[in-house]
Amino acid sequence: MSKNLVIIPTYNELENVGKMLDTVMELSVPFDVLVVDDGSPDGTSAVVREKSADNPGRIFLLQRSGKLGLGTAYIEGFKFGLAKEYDYIFEMDCDFSHNPSDLIRMLEMLENEADVVVGSRYVKGGNTVNWPADRKILSYGASLYVRLVTWMWVKDPTAGFVGYRSKVLETMDLDKIHFIGYAFQIEMKFTAWKLGFKVREIPITFTDRIEGTSKMTKGIIKEAVLGVLQMKWESLFH
Questions:
Q1: What is the DSSP annotation of 125-164?
Q2: Among candidate residues 164, 186, 171, 166, the one with its CA nearest the CA of residue 116
């Protein structure tokens, strides 16, 4: 049986983290979880420690000193997963916008035909729930923009629900992944694609968070817009 790790970055997710960990632990296929917490002042890490004690060897906590960014959280998580020799490593949000049960379908795709699998809102069967119209327009427009600039065919390049075969992460130079916001998600997919790995998408329903607050900012959006241009430019010379 394969060793599977789900990385969940957190900042002030007290309302969600316990329920999320319980849900993943109850899946019919075993997935271990690494929570990377950026110094949440609301007690998120205490809940993770409690759940870890109840599930020894399956729930891990990496606590950082402050808000260091989504990208750096995942990079540290990837390095943890590779050091522990996991076969498949996944990214997922803590707020239930990603349905943990979809991890099983994603794992099957990785085992059979993909090196990278993207839980996609924009392939046939994908959907978004509880999103206002302006958010839908922004997200879909960003996806279209990325495809036009990079020529990468992935329909949901900004997606944050992603699974990797460990060999993909081993092949990448993770220290050269330098974006930290949502541009990180694009950079990871673009890097894997440029290296020749098979990137596949499966449809998911993305449900906007019910508990807690969104981490989206204007700075994150600006980084993504300019970062895509930078990625494409640099790729022309490598």
A1: T-EEES--HHHHHHHHHHHHHHHHHH----S-TT---EEE
A2: 164
* Total tally of structural domains belonging to the chain: 1
Q: Name the residue range of residue 170's domain.
A: 4-235
Residue appearing with tokens 């994908």: 126
Distance spanning both ends of the chain, measured CA to CA: 38
> Residue 33: helix, strand or coil by DSSP?
strand
Structure tokens at 88: 């498949």
Output phi, psi for 167, to 5 deg.
-65, -25
Neighbours of 153 (CB within 10 A): 10
Question: 140-176, pLDDT tens digit by residue?
Answer: 777 788 777 888 889 999 899 999 999 999 999 999 9
**CATH code of the domain covering residue 52:** 3.90.550.10
